[in-house]
């Protein structure tokens, strides 16, 4: 069996499963957020009754993160609905925007978009927050009401996005009927060269198979090249499996996985026991690709879909209006460090936005010193508009006052993960997906630029 089949067999209480089998699997974690949480709660109440209790109050994780820093009253209200539900159900892991359990959330536009407005429980973007808060464990099943839930596959678990109806059912029962996906095999060899990042790996892979090339399939990443990738790198790659239509992504378990998971579970007091799955000789794949990491170059996915692959150096004539570093995929500490390496001592020439994925990342960047300046200061002095309000921001467009949203038909190079028309705001805007290093280099020139031109 493949890694995905092994996890699904275990969660279904079976000795083995095969691609195409329909099995009931037990969920370990169900995650929801402010966009889909209210709908999921509505389905749960409608189907199980107004007085029903969730199947496990410690297994439902609620993370407001999407439309938070906006004056839009309906968006603010969604956070209040989550708070009421968390209180009623005694949900153990609700990462509220505010500290008062009896309060209401309201964004204060008068303070401006850059100054932090959240309390001490707020966790930021769900997919980045889940591992930081100790909710991703090898061998488990994680469901989330968000398509990029597949990011947690970096931790050797089966993680996938589900709709509100399925999530309402999981909330009440802790189970879901799933078809076992076929597995596509991506064997990674070698080591990334300076200026090339994990984002380039996944843009390369999606370019190979197309933006629907993994539809309802597992994407398994393994091989000696994986050992040369950090956990952040693996998260970036797993995050974008859905951009090829993948049901999930999954990485092999190793010492890095163990260290990251053990540290986070201990830090946050979450369940620390888990059972990883390992490869065996009897795996059946429907597709094989070998990726030599050493040979990859900075890569871009052009408008209008993540499969439109080109090398950055082939696109030097493409003029841009703005640049954006952020999101679950591209707003991690390591992403900003790579951007800062390119931007240090230089100035951007187009509007450039920086949105850390989580408050912890804001703290990392403000407390990491390069010489006499923090990385945060280096980015700000280069002209990047850095907000402390960690969240999804303009990755998904959002209400018109969302930080970094494209409210006009602009061209943007972005470290985010999706570039279908209208994704970041205006329906005639264009988004070019790239690594944070490529975004930073392009911000310095105003056109798509290979970051290796700026390596010192
Ligand atoms: S940062 Fe973007 S891709 Fe990630 S969860 Fe938020 S909206 Fe979705």
Structure description:
This protein is α/β, with parallel strands linked by helices. The chain folds into two domains: 1-296, Aconitase, domain 3 (2-Layer Sandwich), CATH 3.30.499.10; 299-454, Aconitase, domain 3, CATH 3.30.499.10. It is 29% helix and 18% strand. It is built from 13 helices and 20 strands. α6 (198-209) runs parallel beside α7 (231-239). The longest helix has 17 residues, at 73-89. The chain binds iron/sulfur cluster. The site of iron/sulfur cluster has 13 residues, from α4 and α9.
Please summarize what this structure is.
The chain has helices spanning 3-12, 37-48, 73-89, 126-132, 164-173, 198-209, 231-239, 255-268, 327-330, 333-343, 359-367, 375-381, 436-445; strands spanning 22-26, 29-32, 60-62, 93-94, 141-144, 158-161, 175-179, 182-189, 217-222, 248-251, 287-292, 299-301, 309-311, 322-326, 351-355, 369-370, 373-374, 385-386, 411-414, 430-433.
Sheet/helix structural class:
alpha/beta
Number of strands: 20
Tell me the fraction of residues in β-strands, as a range. 15-25%
Helix content: 25-40%
Per CATH, what is the topology of the largest domain?
Aconitase, domain 3
Mean pLDDT: 98
Distance between the termini: 46 Å
Provide the CATH top-level class of the largest domain. Alpha Beta
**How would you sum up the global shape?**
globular
Q: Per CATH, which architecture of the largest domain? A: 2-Layer Sandwich
Kindly provide the radius of gyration, computed on alpha-carbon positions and rounded to a whole number of angstroms.
21 Å
Bound ligands: iron/sulfur cluster
CATH homologous superfamily title of the largest domain: Aconitase, domain 3
Specify the number of helices.
13
- How is the biggest beta sheet arranged? 5 strands, parallel
With strands numbered from the N-terminus, the spatial order across the biggest sheet is 4-3-2-5-6
